Amino acid sequence: MSDIHPVDPAFAARAHIRKDDYQRMYARSVEDPEGFWKDMSGRLDWVTPPTKIKNVSYDPKDLYIKWYEDGTLNVAANCLDRHLEKRGDKTAIIFEGDDPNESRSLTYRELHREVCKFANTLKNLGVAKGDRVIVYLPMIPEAAVAMLACARIGAIHSVVFGGFSPDSLAGRIADSGAKLVITADEGCRGGKKIPLKANVDESLTRPHTNSVETVIVVRRTGGAINLQSPRDRWYHTLMEGQSTDCLPEAMNAEDPLFTLYTSGSTGLPKGVLHTSGGYLVYASMTHELIFDVREDDVYWCTADVGWITGHSYVVYGPLANGATVVMFDGVPNYPDFSRFWQVVDKHQVTLFYTAPTAIRALMREGEEPVKKTSRKSLRLLGTVGEPINPEAWNWYYRVVGDERCPIVDTWWQTETGGILITPLPGATDLKPGSATLPFFGITPAIVDTDGKPQEGACSGNLVITDSWPGQMRTVYGDHQRFVDTYFKTYPGNYFTGDGARRDEDGYYWITGRVDDVINVSGHRIGTAEVESALVANHKVAEAAVVGCHHDIKGQGIYAYVTLVAGETGSEELRKELIAGVRKEIGPIAVPDFLQWAPGLPKTRSGKIMRRILRKIAENQPDQLGDISTLADPSVVKSLVEERLIK
Ligand code: WT7
C-alpha cells in the first residue's frame, strides 16, 4: 500500500477544479470530444472561430491530425495583445539572472512593444511566414521575445538548447533550412561563460548550413566576439527606431508554430512539429488547471526554453493566461544551494515547477539550505521530466513545501505538447511517485507487447488511444518517420515509448522508457546518437550505449566500447572519446561509465543484445536471462567481470 495524501479541503475550496468537476468534465471530454474541445477553444481569441473541431486518423496508411482546421488566430496576439486592456501594467516576465544581483521585469505592455519591434526587425531582414528561425539563447527575456516575434509574423521557430554543441546546432540548422539564427555573445550559468556566438560561428562552417543569411546577436555579457559583416548584426542596433506597431499575421490553426528537435531510439534527433490553435488551447488550459493559476500568482518553471517545458510552461501557456512568470538564467547551486528558495522569497513565487533531478541534487545537501529561507509564498509544487522516487517526493513535500503545498507530478513528452497525466491539485488525492490520472480528453491505455489492452490493475506499454489538441502533427520534413515511430508499433494508438503500471485506483505509475532512449536528468538522449559519436573515432570498432542507475540524474549513460585490432583502452583514449561525444552532441550526452569490451553480445544474425548489456550496467549479472542464443556466449563472462558498477 502506498501513502495517500488526500486533497486539502482548504485548497479545494478555492481551486478551479474539484473532485466532482474532474469526474464530470473528464467523462464529457472522452464521450463528446468535439463538443468539449469546441467549448475549450473559447478560451482563445480567434480571428475566425473554428467550426470544424477534430479531424484525425491514426491509420498508419493514411495518418493525419487536425484540430480547429478552419479557425484562424495569432498565437502572439493571444499571449500579448488581448491582455493589454486589463493587464497592460501587470508584470509578464520577472527575469532573474545567474548573478543574484541581476533582475528586471517587463510588463505585458513592455513585452508587447519589444515583440512588435523584433517582429518588424525580422520582417525587414526578409523573414516571412513559414520561414525557419533558430533561437540559440540563454534564459533571458529576449528568448521569449524572439519566439513570440516569430509567432507574430508566422515564422517557425526552432529553439536549440544553449548546452548543445556547434555540431548539434549545425545539424538542426541543416535539417530546418533556417534563414536566421538569433543568439547572444555569451551565456553565463553558475558563474561560467558559455561561448554561444563562437558556437554559432563554428556551426556555420559545417556542411548544409548556408541557408543562414543573418545572425542576430544579443549583448548579454559584453564578452569579445567576432562580428562578421554583413552576416552578423547586433540585436540592440537593429531594434533602434523600429516601430512598435506590427499587425499580427492571421494564421490557420494548423499552421506550424515551432519545431523542436528531440532524440529518439534511432537516427538523428527529429524535428517535432507543433501547430498553432490546438497547441495553444492545450498549453494554456493545462497550465491554468494543473497549476491552478489565479490572477495574483507568481509562477516559476525552472526549465530552459530549449526544451518543450520551456515552450509550453514558461512561454506559451503562462503568457496566454496572462500570468506573471519568472525566467531564471541560473542553476540551483550557484552561488549556493539555497538559490532556488532565495529566488522564491525574493519574487514571492507562489507556484513552483522543477525536475526530480534538481530535487535529488538539493536533497543531498540536507535541509539547512532550504530551511533557512521562508518559502511562505509557495502554495503549489510541481515536477516533470522523469519518474520521481517517493523519497524525493516526500522530501519536496515536507522540506520545501512544509507539508502545505500539493505536488503535481506531471507526465508528458515533447511530442504531446502539454501535460497528459497529472493530478489536479483541488481534485486528485496524491500518491508519491504516481503521476495519477489523465487530464481532460486523454485516454491512456496499457498494452502488452502484442498490443493487447490490459484491464484493471496491470503493467505494460503506455499508449494513448485518441488524439488531443496539443499533439505533435508530424516530424519536420519526414512524415513517414512520424508514422513509423509512433503509430506502427500498436496500430490505432499513439505509442509513448514509456512503460507504466496502473494500480487498483486507476492511478498511473510511469516506469520509464521501454525503447533505446535514456532519460538523463530529465533530458532525452538517444543511444544511437551517443554510439555514433563514439564510433566517429577511428580507434573504435563498435560501441553500445545503455542507461544505468544514477542517484542524482535518475539515469546515467553507460557505454561499452570495442576497439579496432591493435588498440588498447587507456585513460587517455577514454578522455579522447568523452571529448568526442562532448563535441558532437554536448556535455549532457557524455557517458558516465565507459567500459572497454573485447566483444559485444550478439545474436547469430548480428544484432546486439542490449537487454544483456542493460542488466550488466544495472549490476544484475545474475538476471541476464537466456544467453544461449548468442553467437559467442563467452563474451558475456568478461563483460560481467569487468563491469564498472558493482
Ligand atoms: C519523457 C519525455 C515533457 C517534459 C520534459 C521531458 C519522461 C516526463 C515524467 C514524469 C515519469 C516522465 C518520460 C517521457 N517523463 N515526465 N512526470 N514521470 N516520467 O520531455 O524530453 O520529451 O521526455 O520523459 O519517459 O517519455 P522529453
From TrEMBL:
Matching Gene3D superfamilies: 3.30.300.30, N-terminal domain of ligase-like
One example of a Gene Ontology biological process annotation: acetyl-CoA biosynthetic process from acetate
Catalytically driven reaction(s): acetate + ATP + CoA = acetyl-CoA + AMP + diphosphate
Source taxon at top rank: Bacteria
Modification after translation, per record: Acetylated. Deacetylation by the SIR2-homolog deacetylase activates the enzyme.
Entry GO terms, CC: cytosol
InterPro entries for the chain: Ac_CoA_lig, ACAS_N, AMP-bd_C, AMP-bd_C_sf, AMP-dep_synth/lig_dom, ANL_N_sf
Transmembrane segments: none
One MF term in the entry's GO annotations: acetate-CoA ligase activity
Domain Acetyl-coenzyme A synthetase N-terminal: 22-79
Positions bound to CoA: 189-192, 309, 333, 521, 582
Residues reported to bind Mg(2+): 535, 540
Record keywords, A-Z: Acetylation, ATP-binding, Ligase, Magnesium, Metal-binding, Nucleotide-binding
Stated role: Catalyzes the conversion of acetate into acetyl-CoA (AcCoA), an essential intermediate at the junction of anabolic and catabolic pathways. AcsA undergoes a two-step reaction. In the first half reaction, AcsA combines acetate with ATP to form acetyl-adenylate (AcAMP) intermediate. In the second half reaction, it can then transfer the acetyl group from AcAMP to the sulfhydryl group of CoA, forming the product AcCoA.
NCBIfam families on file: Ac_CoA_lig_AcsA (TIGR02188), PRK00174.1 (NF001208)
Family per record: Belongs to the ATP-dependent AMP-binding enzyme family.
Protein name as it appears in the record: Acetyl-coenzyme A synthetase
Organism this protein belongs to: Luteibacter rhizovicinus DSM 16549
